[in-house]
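Following up on my earlier thread - several people asked me to post the actual chain instead of describing it. Fair enough. Here it is, all 313 residues.
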Amino acid sequence: MDTPQISAPPRSPSAGVVHSNTRHTSRFTVVGNHLTQHGELSLTAIGLAAHIQSLPAGARIGIKFLAARFPESEARIAAALRELETHGYLKRTRDRLPSGRVVTRTVSCNQPVSDARPAAAPKPRPRPVHPTPEPPPPASASAPEPAAPSAAPSVPAPAPAAPSAAPRPEVGESAPVPPRPPLPRPQAHDLDRHRAAAGLLADLRRHEPRLLLGEDDIRRLAPAVAAWLERDAHPDAVRRTLVADLPEPLTRPAGLLAHRLTTLLPPPLPTAPAQEAAPRRDPLQNCDGCDRAFRAPEPGHCRECRTDLKKAA
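Reply from S.P.:
Thanks for posting it. Predicted structure:
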């Protein structure tokens, strides 16, 4: 008889998954089974949570960025992020930066937090009340004429639904920013004034090296400077306004200049009142009769010596 083998290898299962595992030594992420085998999360939310946990700190996880990275739509990604926040795998807070911009901070948790906001239960909608029809009276030979039907009882209107809250910014998205006002433009097109405006912008780097503008920025900002010059603003005054009190650090010089040219635009100078002409006075003349000085447009006699005035009197 053959000797039976005591240490036989384990048999593979006849059905189901078979794992072929290799030990990772670099570039791996530890994900708990409480996430990968979660009973309430969708498969999209589970995969998105595993992807977010594998990213380095500071990586972008906005909805538009994730939709460009994966084939899922923005609506599915937004819904998956809300699932993860509901079950405590994401925490989102809104912070205001020193510049005034509101941004959303996102914290990814590899263990679900206990203070996750519970999912809001849908409120039952009130059902409309319908009147119960009364059974018709039994028919009889001597029954009187049926009375006119009475007005139907009033049905209470359903309560109006509470207004929904404003949509909350998604992960990685900031609050909406109001549109910027347009750059000022001159009333009349003057080629010489436009050239002077472009030269002023190009010359700013001589006074402040950080105000180094490209050709596209100069072409875009030149009409705004021309509007200042059209309102009799001296070029030196325009230059001092654009160069004074620059922030530190200065990352977008063209944007700063556009803001100053728009918000600090001076008003037009008031029209100077026209000076009234002084009344013209006749020159002094010497009377030919008495040599007395008098005013008249031409030489002659004064009122005392004029015979025509005496005859008229």
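The beta strands are 90-96, 102-108, 284-286, 293-295. That should answer part of your original question.
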